[in-house]
Amino acid sequence: MRTVVLDSAHGPEFTHAEAQLAKYRAHLDWMAENALTSERSRDFIHAIACQL
Fold first, then answer.
1. Separation of first and last alpha carbons in the chain
2. I want to staple 15 with a disulfide (CB 3.0 to 4.6 A). Which of 4, 11, 37, 41 is the partner?
3. How far is residue 18 from each of residues 4, 7, 25, measured CA to CA in Å?
4. What is the C-alpha separation between 44 and 33, in angstroms, rounded?
5. pLDDT for 39
6. Rounded distance, CA 45 to CA 42, Å?
7. What is the SS3 assignment for the chain?
8. Tell me, what's the pLDDT at 36?
9. Tens of pLDDT along the chain (52 residues)?
């Protein structure tokens, strides 16, 4: 069984309903598609650090 664990002010919440899991899969897929590569992330952080 797959489960998503969410931290909240009242402690962890466990979600395993398929509809909720699909929502989190979609979010993770979007983040993976839109995230910078390791190299581009490093360069981005370096560029910001040089501006400080």
1. 47
2. 4
3. 10, 19, 10
4. 17
5. 97
6. 5
7. CCCEEEEECCEEEEECCHHHHHHHHHHHHHHHHHCCCHHHHHHHHHHHHHHC
8. 97
9. 789 999 999 999 999 999 999 999 999 999 999 999 999 999 999 999 999 9
Residue 5 and residue 14 in contact, taking contact as beta carbons nearer than 8 Å: yes
Other CB atoms closer than 10 Å to residue 32's CB: what's the count? 8
The pLDDT of residue 1: 77
Which token pair is 35?
């995230």
